[in-house]
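Issue 218. Parser rejects a valid record. Input:
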Amino acid sequence: MLQANQRLRGLGGGKGLRPSSCDHEPLVSVVIPSRNSARTIDDCLRSIILQSYKRIEIIIVDCISTDSTREIAQRMGALVLSHDGERSVAKNLGAKFANGKYLFFVDADHKLGPDVIASCIKSIDGFDGVLINDQDISKDSKVSRLFASRRKVLSYDLLHVAVRFVRRDVFDSVGGFDPDLYAGEDLDFHRRFLRHGFKMVDSWATDWHMGSPVNLKELLNRNLYYSSNNLKYASKNPLIALRRINPLRVISAWRRSDTPASDLLPVVLLGFLSNTFLMIGVLLKLSRRQGTPKVDPTQTTLMRNKATPSKKNVIDNYNREGKNYDNIRYGRTKGGRFFSEIELRKTLAMVKGDKVLHVGTATGRVSTYLVSSGFDYVGLELSKVMVRITRERLKGEGDVVQADAEHLPFKPSVFDDIVSVRSFHFLPHPEIFLNEANRVLKRTGRVTVSFEKSVPGREAFRKLMSLPASNAKRAYYSNPQVALMMRRARFTALFAGNVTKLPLLLYWRSKDDRILKELHGKIPSVMGTVGMVVGSKASLGVD
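Output the parser choked on:
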């Protein structure tokens, strides 16, 4: 664990949990993906810390949580990594930095019985992976009780279980989790595990799921969220997917379980209802995609032969940077990645509606986060290279159009939110964009823009930091200037502040983010060089 702490100290937070002195015992790396898991993460971590088997390390891989998940995890001594992908990406990242001989994948809304890891260690001798008995905690509702009964029944069906405690070398041989899946990724890994000829054993140890639906609305929302990705899993494993929804398998599994007969029919019906909700989600996704506003060629000055010289300059710059854009803007330093995390959190916190227009997608870094957060997403980008990269990154999710922000090719009153993340200062006429934003937003719609601010000594500071001059033409603004533009475009300015507390260039050049994180908790945001202003068509305050 001390080795893990040394390797990860700059990438994550937390000080890590010191393993026991029993060095002859194998180290177990517990990998936990999280996103806004503050409600359950305390119970989850506490159940791991109190395991009878003590030689463990805990790695939290957090997807830009906007609640107190990270703070709770760090306070309890876990190592915390950050990422902006989905659950499979998080698990693979945690495994990459794990030091254990064994990997144990636990969801943030699960808690373990006290001897789960000890049981897995005992069971895995002579095998490659261990099945853990997943059960739901039954709450005070009919739906919750039936959901728990269904989970218990399905634990007796081999098509509904997966190894989650596995030897590290076996995990690497199988190839980890499919990064395109965030529903059924464990079942997909299990299938490949078996195809590689690896052997599994059932420990009959139990972990408890704390996040099961308690009513039909929660069940519907859950299945709507996972619907499109369940379709991806089914397209990858069609025969297994069809066999899993066969109600006869539920009946067969029920016969092997001790679930009361009175629950059989409700459990079967609950499964039918759950699958129906999944299909509704798939159909809604398809209808939304078909209903996505398309580009009107008469309403855009997008094409290069029609673009102004200033816009051509931006297009050329973005086309030239291409896939190196993220490395230039974020990926070269830990400080840059820390800034990216802050920027994503603050942007997401301002989005309140469902249908979102994202202006200036660049390489799709923000796009993937908005799509994976469940928004009905449309991206807009001027550079054809960036449009292609964003589409590749989204893998068919959402919709991306090549168009000009100052001539939005959409009908009036279409979107709930418009988001522009550090593209505003590239616009030759930002007032025109804001008027266009007002036109295509719904009656209570909001526009959120972040931008590089006008601060004294910016160019001198760039030279001091040995940064090359930027090729793309841009204009710098103060928060009051942008707020005034908002009012002139008939918006009520709800919020004006800074995205960061320090100059942006300090983040880009900081190879160690520990000092930055300490400063963020102690200083006001007066030195920030990236501003954010939120405007609303309705006279409402920020929630």
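Fixed in the parser; the record now loads. The chain has two domains: 2-212, 295-536.
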